[in-house]
Design a protein that fits this description.
The structure is a homodimer of 316-residue chains. The first copy, chain A, has 316 residues and is an alpha+beta fold. Chain A has helices spanning 3-24, 140-155, 161-172, 197-222, 229-248, 251-258, 263-266, 286-295, 305-315; strands at 33-38, 43-51, 56-68, 87-98, 105-115, 124-134, 174-175, 180-181, 185-192, 273-275. Chain A has a single domain (4-315), classed as oxygen-dependent coproporphyrinogen oxidase (3-Layer(aba) Sandwich), CATH 3.40.1500.10. In chain A, α1 packs parallel to α4 and α2 (140-155) crosses α3.
Chain lengths: 316, 316
């Protein structure tokens, strides 16, 4: 273990605990249950899962630190000189599927890949991660708040960082077969190295904090919203599309399965209960229709004109 | 339209109606709802869907007859001389997700691909199809009956046909990441041409009849079986694996999505309601455990020793 990866291990572990505590604050009775597991190649992880909570129907926080003897081909496309090198991967991933259809589902992830140089000099490393929001009954002000937090997390690291990572997120969370975004996005990055190691680690730490600053106030605001059978059924059908994305497109999921990873950890992201069916019967309801026609389109959520534009749409 | 494809169209349409009637016989109130649709490249289809029935939580019967200008690469691997040819595809696919966890889910499909020779001589064609059963609370006698029907459908077309298509089915319906079969199999074939056109058409007609002879008596026997919350929850979690197979591995689904086909028809096969979660809590229940340890393994269901073997297991 290099000293970089020791540092990342410590920081990531702490961040995982912060997220667990922030989510548990909304659960009067339920607590995350932890399962420690070992990786065949070395290392292991800690999966924390909360099920059937009052607020969260399912929430998961995975920490993992695994070693591998050979960097997967997918990981060295832009770094052919690292082909065949041993590596370490440290990551935290978070998913939340709230029970209340008015509280958005969310996902966040940070990861570090370190390749200790075989000559002992200049270890190579990079980071990846991001967060995204999947509302089923969105509120415009929540979407703006979410992206404002994302922008704030990026701002001090360069003016172009947020637009670049936001666009990357939109491109990634896209269901080609439905020509629809999975949610309202956020930020996404892979292969990221800023000025140096500690700057980049600071940035991903900020990413997790921005995630909590973005998500928790939305939970707070919407968790007591009244919902009925109609909203629950719509949420379940919409969750089907979440599953479609994860099983058809998500590279992390597919890579995990192909490398015969721990299935329960890989599928932690899947909603606990999901439906499939035709959404046509919701087309006469404004919020359900506008989810598709307005919210699930890649757009500039920080555009000041948005609120006026949206108000106009509402009064139509 | 060649005269072969006219014949197939007529026969397949009739078979679709037979299946619809056989399934509707178990529904005192609900009927299949039909939706006609057109294919961008020419032709179209008729999707029939029954939802929230007394017996079938979801059942679908799709008929389609579409034309294309260029055979997809995947289809010409074994027939390079047909590259770039226009083609016709005619198919019937059937899926049933019963409400009662003791009634197995099932899937059947027949398809015809015809390539009219551009010189007007000797049109090329082939058939594909099969059927498979996905029980959640299996009965050994049902599994044996199911495979006996499959064997009977193949018998007159060659002694090796059933073993070959049965093995093909086991190979196809396999979840690599879980190292588990999707169900107890049946038969599966692609690129099939027996002696000639009418022999092959006779065979696929037999396949649909064998499917009904296999499935209907099982529905009849198990549809009044008492079930409770435990069985329903187990069924929902198991359905998650059905979804995993269809979205991760099923070539028909993936091909349909990649070619931007009609999403509602492609996803007709997905269960109406599905769960994901850990099955560990069922490990002390014999039927749930034996589903995994005994039934979801590729095996010779017609082996006479099977019944004795199984009885021994039960009394352990």
């Amino acid at each position: 273990m290099t000293s970089n990866s020791e540092t990342v291990h410590r920081v990531f572990e702490k961040l995982a605990v912060e997220v667990v505590q922030a989510l548990e604050a909304y659960e009067p009775d339920e607590r995350f249950q932890s399962t420690a597991w070992e990786h065949t190649g070395g290392g292991g992880g800690l999966s924390r899962l909360l099920l059937d909570g009052q607020c969260f129907e399912k929430a998961g926080v995975n920490f993992s630190h695994v070693r591998g003897t050979t960097l997967p081909t997918a990981a060295v496309e832009t770094r052919p000189q690292l082909q065949g090198q041993p590596f370490e991967a440290i990551g935290v991933s978070v998913v939340a599927h709230p029970l209340n259809p008015y509280v958005p589902a969310t996902h966040a992830n940070i990861r570090f890949i370190g390749v200790p140089d075989h000559k002992g000099i200049l270890p190579s490393f990079w980071f990846g991660g991001g967060f995204d929001l999947t509302p089923y009954y969105p509120f415009l002000e929540d979407c703006v708040h979410w992206h404002a937090c994302a922008e704030a997390a990026c701002r001090t690291y360069g003016k172009d960082l947020y637009p670049r990572l936001k666009e990357w997120c939109d491109r990634y969370f896209y269901l080609r077969h439905r020509q629809e975004q999975r949610g309202i996005g956020g930020i996404f990055f892979d292969d990221l190295v800023l000025e140096d190691f500690s700057t980049t680690l600071d940035f991903v730490t900020n990413v997790v904090h921005a995630f909590l600053e973005g998500y928790i106030p939305i939970v707070e605001k919407r968790r007591s919203h009244v919902w009925e059978k109609r909203q629950r059924e719509f949420q379940l059908l919409r969750r089907g599309r979440y599953v479609e994305f994860n099983l058809l497109y998500d590279r992390g999921t597919l890579f995990g399965l192909q490398s015969l990873g721990r299935v329960d950890s890989i599928f932690m992201s899947l909603p606990p209960m999901t439906g499939w069916g035709n959404l046509d019967r919701y087309r006469d309801y404004v919020p359900e229709r506008e989810l598709g026609t307005f919210f699930l389109k890649a757009r500039d959520w920080l555009d000041p004109a948005l609120k006026d534009l949206y108000r106009k749409q509402e009064t139509k």
